[in-house]
Amino acid sequence: MGIFSDYINERMSFEEIRNKRKQQLKRISDIRGRGILTYACDMNKGNVPSLILPSDLLPFKDQLAYIKTEDIDIVLETPGGIAETVEDIVELVRDKYQRVGIIIPGTAKSAGTIFAMGADEILMGDSSSLGPIDAQVVSNGKRFSADAFLDGLNKIKEEVEKTGKLNPAYIPFLQNISPGEIQHFENAQNFSKTLVKNWLKTYKFKYWKTHSSTGKKVSEEEKEKRASEIAVKLCKHSDWLTHGRSIRIKDLKKMRLEIHDYSDIRSEKYNKDLHNSIERYYALLRITFDMSSIFKIFETPDHQELTYSISQQKSLQKSIPMKQEKPSSAVFSFTCTKCSAQHKIQLNFVSNVSIAEGTIKYPANENFTCSNCGNITNLSPIRLKIEEQIGLKAIF
Fold this sequence. Notes:
Among the domains are: 3-131 and 246-310, 2-enoyl-CoA Hydratase, Chain A, domain 1; 319-390, no CATH class. Helix content is 42%, strand content 16%.
């Protein structure tokens, strides 16, 4: 059985999950011999600000203050966000620490990929992924890739130069685009490209002294050329076809970007304990997101700030009796995902509590069978959310 399944089957309380998560984060820190900070966003919750945003700068800086080591690792999990905010965060980190490692056990897409390029070392596993960094822009209510737009515009120009006339089909499109917007798209694309190029040359390639194939000394011109090639490749929408495409270790190696694959047992750098601790931490991080209303986590081994989904908290509060400071039970409504039948289920926090009329006792194995259609649903995510909300561990 896998690590994730093992943790699920332990049926831990929210507090127990938090403690184990912290233990694994400290374990990574001890193995690496440096301070560590997590900046993680849940990409599965809808209608929450899970992107990298300017409002993240304060809690990130707050957690950073607890790390007094010379070097730092950052565990990063994000769908992307605002590149300008990433610039602020990376510059904040680089001003304070000598060496920076970015650990990506899951996903760091778009602006998250730009973030990773500001490190001296990028650590990824066999299921980790980065993503294209082509700027995403909005025009006339539509969101699209700036690089794809500029490529399309260039094709129109080439067609006009070749045929000597403009295809009338392009006129409505061109009428809705101003020169200022075109310049904005070019600026947005160049911003991402320039950040990556400069950071790679300044930080990632700082300790690149010799060519691994020839042993010859690496010149500053060669560093700049390699950095430019990687930045252009990551920005090229036509190479990836979609902004959400996963870029894995093998793709990055083709770009000649060195990645520390912590999961590669064949590597001389392989550390079994590091691999295990990262996998365990990430499993606990995912469980925290999946079984709570939290959608952002900023944490070190000893401190944390959690960002909750207010709408989910409110809906949960409605289903929990609030007459007692510490309720003996909670009744929640559950809708079968297959037949939409409604059920009221009682979850107890103390022993020997009678089941209220019209409710069903929370199942001992946490698998609820719908009396209408027979569909089976695991209720542990709901149970963990309730435990988190009221601070008590359920008995069942």
